[in-house]
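Annual report, structural modelling task.

Input specification for the uridine 5'-triphosphate complex:
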Amino acid sequence: MKKITKALFPVAGMGTRMLPATKAIPKELLPIYNTPIIDVLIEECMEAGIDEIILVTSREKYLIENYFDSFHELEKKLAKKRDFERLARIQKFKKIKFSSVRQGEQLGDGHAIMQAKHLLGDEPFLVIFGDDLTFGTPSSVAQLLQAYEKTQHSIIGVRQVPRETLSSYGVVAISGNSDLEAISGVVEKPKIEDAPSDKAVIGKYVCTSEIWTALENAGTSHGGEMRLIDGFEIMLEKNQQISAQTISGERFDAGSTKGYFLANVFMAMKSGEVSKDEILEVIKK
Ligand code: UTP
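The model returned the following structure:
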C-alpha cells in the first residue's frame, strides 16, 4: 500500500469573497483569532503524519512562501529575550519539507494542482483548499487518511449542509448514508431539486495518480477553468472508484466573511482566552 506523506495546497486563487482585504493579503494568512488559516490546516497535516507540503502559489501570493520560510533575525531576537513560547510558534514547521510552484494564470483549482504534477509522480496525495476549517477529533486530515487506508482509492471529503445552500457546492451522488460511501457522480452547484444528496464537497481530498490523466482529459471546459471536480467526474465515467468521507467536527467556510467571523469566535473561545460571557457582553452593547 502506498502511504500518503504529501499534502498539496492550491493557494493561488484570488479570494474574491474576502475582498478588499485579499487585494493585498492572501486569505490563507488571515488569522483565525491568533493563527493564520493555513497554519491551522498545516498543523492538522503535521499531526496526522504528513511530512511534505507543496504550495501552489502565484506572483501575488509570495507572502505565503515567506510565512513558511525561516526568519533568522527574529528567531535570534526571541531566543535572546527567552520568549520560547513565541519562538516555538514560529519554528513549529521546521520538520516539514516545503516546496512551492507557481500558477502563472488563475485557470482553476485543477490547473493549479497540475502545476505540481512533477513533484508527485504516481504517489497518492492530499489536496487541501486553503479556506475550509473543521475542528474535531480525529481531525479532517486523519479522517481522509483513514478512508484512504480502508479503500485504497480517491476520497472526496464531504459534509451534510442545509438543503437551501446546496446550490453553492459540488454535491455527491451516493446511495447510503454512512460516513464512507462509494460515489456514483458529482453535480456542481445543482438546483436544489436536482441535488443528488445533501452531502457537499468541502475542499479536502485524497487524489490517486489517475487524477493526472483525468485532469488532462477534463481540459478547461468551464469558463476557461480546469477544475479538480471535473477530473473526478471523468474518473467516475471510467469506472475508477471514488468514495465520499463525511468529515465530522465543527466546520467553518473561512473563505467567506461570515464563516471567517464565526471561526474567529470559535477559536477565541477554544483558546480559553475569551469567555462566552465576554462575547455575550459585546452582543448586549
Ligand atoms: P476558490 O473557488 O475558493 O477560489 O478556490 P478563491 O479564489 O480561493 O476564493 P473566492 O471564491 O474567489 O473567494 C478553491 C481553492 O483553489 C485555489 C484557491 O486558492 C483555493 O484554495 N485556486 C483556485 C488556485 O490555486 N488557482 C485557481 O486558479 C483557482
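The CA atoms of residues 149 and 219 lie 30 Å apart.
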